[in-house]
Amino acid sequence: MEFTERQARIVEIVKNSSPITGEQIAAKLDLTRATLRPDLTILTMAGVLEARPRVGYFYKEKKKTSPYMDRLRQLRVGDFKSLPISIRENISIYDAIVTMFTQNVGSLTVVGEGQTLRGMVSRKDLLKSTLGKTDLQQVPVSIIMTRMPNIIMTTADEPVLEAARKLTLHQIDTLPVVEAFIDEKGEERYEVIGRFTKTNVTKLFVQIGSLGAQS
Amino acid sequence: MEFTERQARIVEIVKNSSPITGEQIAAKLDLTRATLRPDLTILTMAGVLEARPRVGYFYKEKKKTSPYMDRLRQLRVGDFKSLPISIRENISIYDAIVTMFTQNVGSLTVVGEGQTLRGMVSRKDLLKSTLGKTDLQQVPVSIIMTRMPNIIMTTADEPVLEAARKLTLHQIDTLPVVEAFIDEKGEERYEVIGRFTKTNVTKLFVQIGSLGAQS
């Protein structure tokens, strides 16, 4: 279980003096109740704390695994990924930008024979290249792309939650979804089979929430 | 409650012939069980269907509002937003791009006096402007920014779920978080107090999921 520093302090306080109200926790931390609200909501939602109306918060000693959480962790990247949009590494930066607009995506995978992953280019990479004196029409995209082994990847089997964590941790918008294979020289290669983005996560979040709404 | 077309068909099938297994539903739809997995998981998670091991899926006639879902809908933009990064409309496109890199953000709010919202520029807008013959150092950002009334906004009070839906619906990465006020001419204006992005949604998704993991 991963807490932020503040969440860890809240849990400690509730452990040591439950039941305790939100106001009392806030006072101990020198914060307002409003500031604590999201942390208390998330800790309760996750089943770490229990909130009893007009009594206060309790620490849940024997936490049951929430079936909701279990199901959330069963979701796999392969079921929510988008199609990859790929280019070759010898095309110009200018043509890469044009491809991004015609395909309406925020990143491109750069591939060799057999859709083998060679690089990634993001909107950010392309935008940065326009700041210098680079001739966008002449310089190939291979000059500015992120290369192996610096590409953060995911697989169809990976839990959506893990892939989402990679996106936030590495501050990137897209993970290529790959399948590993061994080439004729015995080296590990990756075939690109999709892309997984913050947009996929946001859509999933909305879908889960919307379906829950009682109409 | 919002279903995708396929989810609506699944719900119809389960309504008419429950209990029914995943394989049987798949057969009726001419799809594989694997293809249906994410839909069945989400429908179960949302409390629309009930899955009983070795029996099959049931339609939940009397749906209880899930406390988990209730809490999810209580989360407000104001508790999860980021700080806004703002510029003036007379600065050059080039300087806007530089600001985006020095501040490490994917969008900028363009403001007038008193942080009044005048426009938005995204990485996509800036990248598009580099494709033409525009002199990036000379042309002000006001020429390419999205203007009122075309800016999609959110407020601190809005549920995170609604704001996330706006992001997916309008295919944008950032919503300015605003507070409306009436200026001295009696016109409605918006003060920028934050930004809410797909990154905020992804972080929240990860946080909810991570806290649920039993250690």
UniProtKB/TrEMBL annotation, chains A, B:
Pfam families: CBS, HTH_11. Keywords: CBS domain, Repeat. Residues 80-136, 145-211 form the CBS domain. The lineage of its organism: Bacteria, Bacillati, Bacillota, Clostridia, Eubacteriales. Signal peptide: none annotated. This is CBS domain-containing protein.
